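Subject: design request, 268 residues
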């Protein structure tokens, strides 16, 4: 019978298999074909090759599991076990030669997230976790930081290029974070942002309009690293809505004050 430890190990293996391919393409410096899927939304041949590598590895181990993947099967129905895959989180960075992107692989069952891995192929860093098993970086335990004063916190975010209808509210929240924190960072890869939050490089992360595959592994890793993860109103819809706030428990409360004020219901 498969165990959470097995699932965690397979998530790491699949993410690293795709990461080797992504790194080879990036180091090779060869031009890649780019397609536009939608507004500010791109896909390359490397995304598809990396996705095929992940899915092949998962299918070889668990042929009866479902797979939800950004490029091949974004609408895969839920099963007893479903893998959630982003083969190249940070495609725009990759296209422009910015060396910051990752492979994200997560597994969920009927009770929620079971295991996850985020692999940075350029730095050879794999962030991974399993439910009730703690979070690790290359096998070593990691924990979220938790400053009580947000003015001491370094917080990450991402710009809502595909959520322009909510841009005004995002900018309201952005201004509040600029005034309240020690600094904001925008790296261009939500999975990296969550991984860095889990290990304390960032104190927190918030963004809106993400997809399930962008954040599934990171949600589990942050929680297993002792952090709190909710949507921007403090609920549990982040995997469906793509709106997320992640941080240590004390800072999370302060961050939610800002996001609730910006994104909460407006009364006439």
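Subject: RE: design request

Done. Sequence follows.
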């Amino acid at each position: 019978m498969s165990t959470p430890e097995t699932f965690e190990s397979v998530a790491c293996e699949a993410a690293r298999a795709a990461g080797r391919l992504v790194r080879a393409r990036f180091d090779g410096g060869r031009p890649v074909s780019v397609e536009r899927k939608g507004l500010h939304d791109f896909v390359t041949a490397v995304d598809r090759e990396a996705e095929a590598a992940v899915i092949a590895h998962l299918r070889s181990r668990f042929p009866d599991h479902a797979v939800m993947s950004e490029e091949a099967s974004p609408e895969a129905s839920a099963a007893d076990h479903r893998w959630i895959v982003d083969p190249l989180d940070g495609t725009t960075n990759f296209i422009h030669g910015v060396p910051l992107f990752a492979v994200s692989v997560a597994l969920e069952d009927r009770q929620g997230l079971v295991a996850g891995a985020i692999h940075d192929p350029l730095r050879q860093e794999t962030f991974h976790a399993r439910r009730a098993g703690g979070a690790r970086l290359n096998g070593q335990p990691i924990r979220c930081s938790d400053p009580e004063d947000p003015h001491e916190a370094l917080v990450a975010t991402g710009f809502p290029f595909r959520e322009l209808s909510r841009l005004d509210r995002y900018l309201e929240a952005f201004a509040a974070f600029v005034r309240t924190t020690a600094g904001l960072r925008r790296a261009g890869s939500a999975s990296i942002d969550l991984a860095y939050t889990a290990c304390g490089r960032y104190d927190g992360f918030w963004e809106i309009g993400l997809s399930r595959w962008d954040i599934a592994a990171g949600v589990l890793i942050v929680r297993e690293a002792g952090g709190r993860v909710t949507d921007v109103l403090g609920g549990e819809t982040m995997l469906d809505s793509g709106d997320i706030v992640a941080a240590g428990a004390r800072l999370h409360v302060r961050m939610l004050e800002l996001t609730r004020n910006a994104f909460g219901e407006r009364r006439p």
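The mean pLDDT is 91.
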